[in-house]
Amino acid sequence: MGCFMENIILEMRSITKTFPGVKALDAVNLKVRAGEIHALVGENGAGKSTLMKVLSGVYPHGSYEGDILFNDETVAFTGITDSEEKGIIIIHQELALVPLLSIAENLFLGNENVEGGVINWPKTYSRTQELLAKVGLRESPSTLVGQLGVGKQQLVEIAKALAKDVKLLILDEPTAALQENDSAKLLDLLLEFKAQGISSILITHKLNEISRVADSITVIRDGASVSTLDCRAQSISEEDIIRDMVGRDMAHRYPARKNPTEEGHLGKTLLEVSNWNVWHPEAVDRQIIHDIAFNVHAGEIVGIAGLMGSGRTELAMSLFGQSYGKNVQGEVRLRGDVADLSTVPKAIKSGLAYVTEDRKELGLILEETIQTNTTLANLDRVSSKGVIDENIERQVSEDYRKALNIRTPSVFQKVMNLSGGNQQKVVLSKWLYSQPDVLILDEPTRGIDVGAKFEIYSIINELADDGKGVVMISSEMPELLGMCDRIYVMNEGRFVGELDKTNASQEKIMSMIVKA
Amino acid sequence: MTTKETSTVVQSAPSVTSYLKSHMRDYGMLIALVVIMGMFQFLTDGTLMRPVNLTNLFLQNSYIIIMAIGMLLVIVAGHIDLSVGSVAGFIGALAAVMSVNYDLPTILVVPVCLVVGLIIGGLQGYWIAYWKIPAFIVTLAGMLVFRGLTLALLEGQSVGPFPKSFQLLSTGFIPDVFGVGRPNVTALVLGVLAASSIVFLAARSRSRALKYGIQDEPFSFFIVKNALVAIAIIYLSYLLSTYRGLPNVLMTMAVLIAVYTFLTNSTTIGRRIYALGGNVKAAKLSGINTERLTFLTFANMGMLAALAGLIFAARLNTATPKAGFAMELDVIAAVFIGGASMTGGVGKIIGAVIGAFIMGVMNNGMSILGIGIDWQQVIKGLVLLAAVIFDVYNKQKAR
Fold first, then answer.
1. Residue B189 lies inside a defined structural domain of this protein
2. DSSP conformation letters of A485-496
3. Which residue, among A349, A352, A385, A395, would best test binding to B if mutated, counting the most B CBs under 10 Å from its CB?
4. A412: which chain B residues are within 8 Å (Cβ-Cβ)?
5. Are B348 and B338 in contact (CB under 8 A)?
6. Where's the ABC transporter domain (chain A) (predicted)?
């Protein structure tokens, strides 16, 4: 069969999608052949999920530019029901199941077997049994979904897709939360569907999975499709894919350090973590953090690289007063002494600060003023005998406003009225005022524009120059490479590698992650 | 970074109108109260502000105001307490049984009752704070439990009358140390003292703020506001002095309002309660012991409900099984009329007090006018709704 004779089931032509201020997708092309498994790969934030949301109608026709052809006809979906009607079914990373309903009820939710408005339960149950057999799940249709493990829930989701007569199945990182053998089972199922003529798009970070099942690969980077590789025509190495995923220039986006740490000139060790183990707060038999050990020196910026869900935030929060997890075990030394970090006040007192990745949910009191937020973690310092001296408090917040260049007419401004970058500076003010030795910054530049990013980077550099230890968690690898003296690579709750600034590269980090 | 150095950040003072506009939420309800009082003063041909009625107004609403102070903290912390009416009724019954049936002295009965209230609040707070059981459920259960216990304690009957010493809690007046009697010079002197200390404190805090170069209230506004407040307080104390002077209850209330205003505005514990209600997760991650604060907030509420129960019982001079019935609704309404936010983190003590007075003046005024209890309920309900809509509208406009 010649190339041009191939049966294309889906073609997305130069899709461009802009959000206010950001171009999320820039003329992306995607071509999926009938009956193939098409892998879609790219870094976090590259635009994969946005592209799939355009395809499934979550972003309706008209909110993007470009054309979508499905089975050779142009389609214009206005919502997810439109795309489902055509047989395009998307299974999201966060499963869309109702835990307190049974498998049968979940399978036909919104698609019930009704006769005159009344649900036909016998038919529902017998169809459920057929579908469960197809996906190889041996459970009673009346079992509550909440009682199933993640792997089985994933199968229920796929069965739900089959109930809707699926033509093109889209799976967004379906194996991210699965154990090894569950993942293998799921991939086998995809191969089986392929034999039945169902095409799938598989979004994944695991390159071994791709080489096992994918027929072709599209790589997306920074909102643009970089390359499409045909696995049947040529053999594709993992290195090829990684290069396409990360290759971007790293021009002067990062401010220079005044006195950069060089090997042999490191300050004393500030933070030393060893044998750190953490279990999931609800599913107590699931271990989230495995045997992590790391250290931070004075004046050093240490990065933690890893994909979303690799356990970076969980690690940071479990260190910071055990704000995450159950059964936290391990030893932390601060300035050489064993530290008790079992509660947040103790962690703060020991000289640790944690700048959360989610500033609106976890970092700020949005209804309150800049002044109130600035002093919140160290109120005792602006008060005596429990009475706040508001004038000192004002002075403090005013000083930080100037030092960090928070753009606002006064410190009485409520933080909800500030831009993302300025809000982040308020969070930083709060933690700087808590007088920490070590700051853990979790995605410190998430959702803020380029100019503000540069300012945040400068602040981080100043902190290191002042002799503080900085731990920087980020999903943006260039940011880590541009800022950090050392980078730990994290995957599935473990540290899988450590790289020095001199020999770190995106390729090395990526290959550590995908080969782990 | 040193915190002592003083920089001179003089912000340009905004005009009175723009200042008032941006603080509409703060002054809106006070203006509403003045308007409502003026309206009833007119409709009742001056009966509303007659010294004897004014005295009654304070006595009638004291227990609502006292509970509204505690409820404000609970609501700011992001919770609710439905049990306060029942707890107040229960404590009244307890006091009656102790003083009437067992002839225990008032000096013992009052502290015991307050401690029992504290324990009741603490028990409820324990489940809410440490077990994360919704306050609505816990206090709904408390409402039923203490309603039932009141009945059990009183064996379904009214118990009274109270000894004279106990009645003084509610019906007592500050005696005139100057011996004139009418007008009560002590009342006048205390009124002038209160007014001048309020003005003095305001002026001191303003001058300190100016020294640090941070003040956004226009000077003319400051003068007018404080003058009006001082005149209002002196005028009220004059009116009261021409009757029997200052009721004990009014003094209790004034002290509580002052203490809790200070607590919420100027102490770390107050600040942390607002933070907890504004964003509990962020507060926790800032090292605030959110559980203990929640617990304390409810314990405090229990104690204030007990105090309100004592005053209510003393006022009726008898403990009845129906005492405190549905009182929690008036208290909660007062707090929301006063500008507190249902989601927590927003609200002021003075707002809750004004809210309680709005309800109280309307009750009193409508009763004088002879409006039936049926229409009174309707009007109070509509006022509550209107106040909250006004608040939400202002908030949206501010964005």
1. no
2. SEEEEEETTEEE
3. A395
4. 216
5. yes
6. 10-247, 273-512
Q: Could you say which DSSP state residue A369 is in?
A: B
> Does B161 sit behind a cis peptide bond, omega within 30 degrees of 0 on the bond before it?
yes
| pLDDT tens string A360-396 | 889 999 989 999 999 999 999 999 999 999 889 988 9
With an 8 Å Cβ cutoff, is A364 touching chain B?
Answer: yes
Cβ atoms of A15 and A64 closer than 8 Å: yes
Residue of A nearest to B281 (CA): A362
Inter-chain CB proximity A394 and B216 less than 8 Å: no
Task: Please return the burial class of A467, using the count of CB atoms within 10 Å of its CB with bins 0-12, 13-18 and 19+.
Answer: middle
Residues of chain B with C-beta less than 8 angstroms from the C-beta of A379? 268, 271-272
- Is B245 inside any structural domain? no
The verdict on residue B332 lying in a domain is yes
Residue B317 near residue B161, CB atoms below 8 Å: yes
Q: Name the E strands within B278-340.
A: none
- C-beta separation of A403 from A396 below 8 A: no
Burial class (CB in 10 A: 0-12, 13-18, 19+), B190: buried
Domain boundaries, chain A: 3-246, 267-351+436-516, 359-435
Q: Do B6 and A395 touch (CB under 8 A)?
A: yes
Do B214 and A394 count as a contact with CB atoms less than 8 A apart? Answer: yes
Which chain A residues touch B271 with a CB distance below 8 Å?
A: 372, 376, 379, 388
Indicate the residue type of B86.
Answer: S
| Nearest CB neighbour to A395, from listed B212, B272, B399 | B212
Q: Which of B25, B104, B312, B282 is nearest to A362 (CA)?
A: B282
Mean pLDDT throughout A218-242?
A: 81
A323 and B CB contact within 8 Å: yes
The DSSP result for A30-65, as a single string, is EEEETT-EEEEE--TTSSHHHHHHHHHTSS-TTSSE
Report phi then psi at A220, rounded to 5.
-115, 135
Does the CB of A7 have a partner CB in chain B at under 8 Å? no
Inter-chain contact B267–A412, Cβ cutoff 8 Å?
no
* Cβ of residue A318 closer than 8 Å to a chain B Cβ: no
Q: B328-361, pLDDT tens digit by residue?
A: 999 999 999 998 988 899 999 999 999 999 999 9
Q: Nearest residue of B to residue A360 by CA position? A: B282
> Residue A261: what pLDDT?
58
Query: For chain B, how many structural domains are there in total?
Result: 1
Interchain pair B287, A383: CB under 8 A: no
Residues of B in contact with A366 (CB under 8 A): 278-279
Residue A64 contacts B, CB cutoff 8 Å? no
Question: Minimal Cα–Cα distance from B227 to chain A, Å?
Answer: 25
Whether residues A410 and B346 touch (CB distance < 8 A) is answered with no
- pLDDT band at residue A6 using 50, 70 and 90 as cut-offs: low
What does each C-alpha distance from A476 to A28, A226, A470, B128 come to in angstroms? 21, 18, 17, 41
Topology of A267-351+436-516 in CATH?
Answer: Rossmann fold (3.40.50)
What pLDDT score was predicted for residue A21? 55
A19-31 tens-digit pLDDT: 765 678 888 999 9
Q: Which residues of chain B have pLDDT under 50?
A: 1-13
Same fold, A3-246 and A267-351+436-516: yes
Q: Are strands A387-388 and A269-279 parallel, antiparallel or unpaired?
A: unpaired
Task: State the architecture of A3-246 in CATH terms.
Answer: 3-Layer(aba) Sandwich (3.40)
pLDDT band at A446 (very low <50, low <70, confident <90, very high): confident
Measure the CA–CA gap between A152 and B24, rounded to whole angstroms: 56
B285/A396 touch (CB, cutoff 8 Å), yes or no: no
What ipTM describes this predicted complex? 0.83
CB contacts < 8 A, A to B, total 106
